[in-house]
Amino acid sequence: MTHPRSKRLLEYLFTVAVIVTLNFALPRVMPGGPFLYLSADQDQEVAQFSAAQQDYYRRQYGLDRPLVQQYAAYITALVRGDLGYSIYYNQGVTAVLVDRLPWTLLLVTAAVVLSTLAGCLLGSISTAFRGRALDRWLYPALIAVSEIPAFLLGLLLLFTLAAGWQLFPLSGAMTHFAVYASPWDRLADIARHAALPVLTLAIVRTGGLYLLARNSTATVLTRDYLRTARAKGLHPLRILTRHTLRNAMLPIVTRVFLSLGGLVGGAILVENVFAYPGLGHLMREAVLVHDYPMIQGIFLLVTLSVLTANYLADRVYGRLDPRIRETPAEAR
Amino acid sequence: MTALSIAYGSRRWRFRLTGTLSTGGQIGLIFLMTLLLLAAAAPLVCPHSPQKTSGPALAPPGAEHWMGTDDLGVDVWAQVCFGARVSLVVGMGTALLAGLGGALAGILAGYRGGWVDGVLMRLIDILLVLPDLPVMIVLAAFFGPSVWTIIGVLSAFAWVFTARIVRARVLSLKQRRFIQAAETYGAGTFYLIRRHFLPEIFPLVTVSMIRLAGRAIVAEAGLSFLGLGDPTSRSWGFILHHALSFPGIYYTAFWKWWLLFPWLALTLVVLALALIGKDLEKVADPRMRSH
Predict the structure, then answer these.
(1) Chain B neighbours among A 246-285 (CB < 8 Å)?
(2) What angle do CA A175, A177, A181 make, to 5 degrees?
(3) Mean pLDDT for chain A?
(4) DSSP assignment, residue A324?
(5) Residue A48 DSSP code
């Protein structure tokens, strides 16, 4: 374990193990049992299983076996991609997840790309106009916007742009029962529906990236190697791309990946503001109808994706900046 | 604001809010203080009950109902005032628990070093990358939501921010001459922590706690907004949730008071905390911009 990279990987694997175990343990330590009630919905009479039926189901689902065996069975199923069977959707959990995942991915990717571009652009502009009126207005405005939580901003956009001026659809990812003349119409419809959720997530993230880009380009501009580059008579564009941006990018790239966890939380809420049929919306539905296999499936998928993204961030960072490749994680 | 100062019992070190807050920070502080008073005196300042019908349903703001009423004819002003209690309790509770816990963990990791430091840092690394909202949703789903569960889970995630900052400061303090001098004179761990580390770390922890309070209030609001918060506490997020479940909310003007006022309350609290936090950050440590 002397090599920092393998040590890092081991850390991530340990985290994954913790999450998987947590996921296995949660339903087993929660109060109550899965077979206590046949139905306990609101407005309905509570029907209960008999003791014999409860025993039958317990055996059916393997809950009467020792914990170690249950755990082993759980891991084997997990490795095969089997996340269990959704009680509410009456489908395999994996199938439902595969169905909903693209929508969330669309939102998150679009928001990351948009906010990173906007943040870098505004940050560079701010550095260029440092101390002048534009910078002095841009800075507090973006800081204030970045402090507003995503779902509150989403509500604001929803009620002004969508409900008030009816510029955008209120909810969903596509118009119901729509027949499209061409694939382009279909794409346009999807874009119109995704516009507000993406805009919300992007605006909220832009502030932080702007601040980072502004600081980072400002620091790079004061460095000696930049003065050398200018003195050598290099083309300003080459200085910008090879010297300024390449160095200013490092903290931005890390930030983009490291903030994915927060972005996922924001996306869960924003999807619910706009009733967008992604994983966040699904998660809320599943919680409200007590579809536990579903909740666990989403939780596992979300946390593992965030972990993978973070691990990739570590690797990418090493690629971009050769200086830290050899230093252990603690030194950072 | 001149009389207000937070001072830790140490002669060497004094942390004053007087003169350190900008106009924005002062506005934020005044807003928070007003809100604190409103929340504490909610039964006195609200003529109507936050739970019982007290007028016609969906009445616009007027002399009788300052912020109008919701679909059951419950006064929105009363709901906002009483809702402030939930937000403030969650914010302050999490800030205290996570701030103090994080400070202790940070001191321990930084000062003791060795395996304690190793274990704590690995734990911090893990918690930093885990998204907290899904975990809260899952725990709320499995154990039933209550204000205390929410505070507990939020603190379990939030202490890492304080701990990291404090650890870094303790590590640099350990090298300082006066600490080493105290050690040579035979100062014990607890004496050092009490007399030297705590006073130095106090401003950092204060700033960190203000940040944590903001995060906690937002997280609770988000959870309640999803309908997964404590059902017995009508927090601001719960009012938003309730208003959005009203079928005609998008097509009527009701949102202009029913949704707007809790929305404003939440946004203003978050902004106020951010303004104060930014000002104090500059005083405590100009380099501290980690979260």
Answers:
(1) 258, 261-262, 264-265, 268-269, 272, 283-284
(2) 80
(3) 79
(4) G
(5) E
Can you tell me the distance from the alpha carbon of B168 to that of A203, in angstroms, rounded to the nearest whole number?
32
pLDDT confidence of residue B213? 92
A152/B263 CB distance under 8 A = yes
Length of chain A (residues): 332
A14 in contact with B, Cβ within 8 Å? yes
Q: If contacts are CB pairs under 8 Å, which of residues 284-303 in chain A contact chain B?
A: 284, 286-288, 290, 292, 295-296, 298-299, 302-303
CA distances from B167 to B94, B104, B109, B113, B121 (A): 20, 9, 6, 10, 10
Residue B13 in tokens: 């070190």
**Residue range A220-230: average pLDDT?**
82
Angle at B28 between CA B169 and CA B283, to 5 degrees: 25
Q: Which of A146-150, A313-317, B116-120 has the lowest mean pLDDT?
A: A313-317
CA atoms within 13 A of residue B29's CA, in its CB half-sphere: 18
- Residue A277 sits at φ, ψ, to 5 deg, of -75, 50
The pLDDT assigned to A322 comes to 63
> DSSP of B118-151, one letter per residue?
HHHHHHHHHHHHS-HHHHHHHHHHHH---HHHHH
Rounded CA separation B223/B205 (Å): 26
Rounded Cα distance between A286 and A273, Å, is 16
CB contact under 8 A, B131 and A264: yes
The tokens for A110 are 């679009």
Task: Count the alpha carbons within 13 Å of A109 in the hemisphere toward its beta carbon.
Answer: 6
Flag the least confident range among A88-102, A317-331, B270-284. A317-331
CA gap A320, A329 in Å, rounded: 16
Give me the percent of chain B exceeding a pLDDT of 70. 90
Classify strands A37-39 and A85-86 as parallel, antiparallel or unpaired: unpaired
* pLDDT score at A37: 59
Find the mean pLDDT for residues A3-25: 80
Spatial CA neighbour of A71 closest among A30, A24, A116: A24
Give the other-Cβ count within 10 Å of A221's Cβ.
16
ipTM of the complex: 0.78
Mark yes or no for CB contact B141/A295 under 8 Å.
yes
Helices (H) and strands (E) in chain A, counts: 13, 4
Instruction: Tell whether B126 is within 8 A of chain A (Cβ).
Output: yes
Q: How far apart are alpha carbons A18 and B287 in whole angstroms?
A: 33
Contact (Cβ atoms closer than 8 angstroms) between residue B65 and residue B55:
yes
Nearest-by-CA chain A residue for B131: A261
Nearest to B89 by CA among B6, B8, B146, B128: B146
Q: Which residue of B31, B117, B123, B130 is the best one to mutate when testing the A interface, meaning the one whose CB has the most A CBs within 10 A?
A: B130
A287/B137 touch (CB, cutoff 8 Å), yes or no: yes
